[in-house]
Every structure is written in C-alpha cells, then in structure tokens.
From TrEMBL:
<feature type="transmembrane region" description="Helical">
    <location>
        <begin position="226"/>
        <end position="249"/>
    </location>
</feature>
<keyword id="KW-1133">Transmembrane helix</keyword>
<keyword id="KW-0812">Transmembrane</keyword>
<protein>
    <recommendedName>
        <fullName>CAAX prenyl protease 2</fullName>
        <ecNumber>3.4.26.1</ecNumber>
    </recommendedName>
</protein>
<keyword id="KW-0378">Hydrolase</keyword>
<dbReference type="GO" id="GO:0005789">
    <property type="term" value="C:endoplasmic reticulum membrane"/>
</dbReference>
<dbReference type="GO" id="GO:0071586">
    <property type="term" value="P:CAAX-box protein processing"/>
</dbReference>
<feature type="transmembrane region" description="Helical">
    <location>
        <begin position="283"/>
        <end position="302"/>
    </location>
</feature>
<comment type="similarity">
    <text>Belongs to the peptidase U48 family.</text>
</comment>
<feature type="transmembrane region" description="Helical">
    <location>
        <begin position="109"/>
        <end position="128"/>
    </location>
</feature>
<dbReference type="Pfam" id="PF02517">
    <property type="entry name" value="Rce1-like"/>
</dbReference>
<feature type="transmembrane region" description="Helical">
    <location>
        <begin position="255"/>
        <end position="276"/>
    </location>
</feature>
<feature type="domain" description="CAAX prenyl protease 2/Lysostaphin resistance protein A-like">
    <location>
        <begin position="164"/>
        <end position="267"/>
    </location>
</feature>
<dbReference type="InterPro" id="IPR003675">
    <property type="entry name" value="Rce1/LyrA-like_dom"/>
</dbReference>
<keyword id="KW-0256">Endoplasmic reticulum</keyword>
<keyword id="KW-0645">Protease</keyword>
<dbReference type="GO" id="GO:0004222">
    <property type="term" value="F:metalloendopeptidase activity"/>
</dbReference>
Amino acid sequence: MAALGGDGLRLLSVSRPERQPESAALGGPGPGLCCWVSVFSCLSLACSYVGSLYVWKSELPRDHPAVIKRRFTSVLVVSSLSPLCVLLWRELTGIQPGTSLLTLMGFRLEGIFPAALLPLLLTMILFLGPLMQLSMDCPCDLADGLKVVLAPRSWARCLTDMRWLRNQVIAPLTEELVFRACMLPMLAPCTGLGPAVFTCPLFFGVAHFHHIFEQLRFRQSSVGSIILSAAFQFSYTAVFGAYTAFLFIRTGHLIGPVLCHSFCNYMGFPAVCAALEHPQRRPLLAGYALGVGLFLLLLKPLTDPKLYGSLPLCVLLERAGDSEVPLCS
C-alpha cells in the first residue's frame, strides 16, 4: 500500500493512455486522490466497525450475553450508517455509478433467488467432507436430524441464544455489509475488480486482530499460542473474505455472501486432523477431496453472471471505459 498513488494500485484508465482518463470520464478528481479517498474510506469503516465493539466498558468476556447484547447495539448502528461512507466517497471522488447506491451495494431483486441458493450450494459442496464427518459423528439419523432442524421449538431456542444470533445472523450480515457491500464499490474503481477481491479481505482479516487483546486480557492461553491463533485466523478470514468478495462481484447481490458467511460460521474450520484419525478415514478423506474438486469445477458455472442479471460493479467499471473485466463474464 506504499504506492497508492503510483503503479501499485492502478486506476482503470492508467494502463491504457489512449483512453480518456477515468477522472475525466466520471467527472471526478485525479487518480491519486481517488485511490487515497477509497483506501482511507475503507480504513475508516474497518476502524469504526471494530471500535464499536469497545465503546462499552466491561470486565466480562466477549461471549457473555450482556456483552453480546451491548455489541449488537453499537455494531448495528455503525453498520446502518456505513452506506453514508459510500455516499461521501461518491461525492468526494465525483464517481457516478450509473445506478442507485443500494443496488451498487447488492440490495436488488433481479436474480435474487439464484443469488441466495447457488452460492450457498457451492459452499456446501466445498464442505462436503466436514458435512459427512458431522453426519457420521451425529448419534441421530437423517430423519431425526431433519425433525430437530425444522422444529419451531429449535428455532425459538436459537433466537434466544445470544451467541447463535451473533454468529449466524448479526456478524454475517454486518460484516458482509461493511467489508463487502460498502468497501468493494469504493475499491473497484481504484484497483480493478481482480485486485479488489484480494485487497478488500485484508481489511476484513486485520479487523479480527482485536481478538488478541481480549484473549490476552482474560489470559485464555499463552502469548505464543494467542499470536499463532491470530495469524491463522487472519489467513483464514482473508481467504474467506476473498471468496465472498468474489461471490459479491459475480452475483451482484449481498444475500449470497451473507448466507455463506453464516453457514461457514456454523461449520467452523474443517477438522482435518480429526478426519485423519477417524475410524472411517478413507471415505471421509474421499469426501474432502471430492468436495474440493467439485467446488473448483463448479465455481465459475454456478457464479456465471448471466444467472444474476446486470452486475452493478461491472456497470460502474464499464462507465469508466474498462471493457476488459474478466470477472464480469
């Protein structure tokens, strides 16, 4: 990020001098200023989101229901105000997306059903091995499991569980809103869609470092273990962030990344070590391999933009004169 105004983060028109510069095409300021405004806006959003978790002073751990309720309040306020940052960015840069702000952020009806179902199906395919492992280790059969899942009493119990609400509802919704729906439209005109897929998750990964301070504060483990865990979490969340950023761009919807985020929070990181020691190791590892293989095979077909209608971010870049956007086709 040291070369924000130079060659490291290019504007769409910088590498093609024969085209009209983006600032002229879109009526905005120069390329360097656009990039600085975009990056500063994303940093401000990330800091505001994490900072909202700590406006409440408490000696209780993060999983305590009282702490979770307070954080719900502050993070929902910050997330609901985050579109104002995109609006301010648009005014400062002069970039006109050619569509409404909500549409640009993935709130639209066109193609909403495939956008909700297909990315979730793709993610479940990736987790085929862990799903098989969960099924093998579950004491109940499939019919009993479905009865439990579909029972109104089970859902009522979940809705009163603060940790469930945080992990399955509030965190996926607010994090995808802030770190994908708000940041990607601001980064894409500066970096292009491809680099934005990998740049945006860096803000998401760094935002999870605050867990280090909580773990150190409550002495939940040794310092070395906490730092190692934080490095692993950063890597995992960065890769996951790149995946949901890819889904957001390819579908033009927020609902797909939110549902996939919720599902991944439920599943957790795949227990590969446990799978290696499992009594049914061979079929289980075959399931892991099959899931990854099918995921890679189906990644592009199930996220084909033709299934989801006009993509707002692609429209934004086309207005900038960039006709070569691989992720849009």
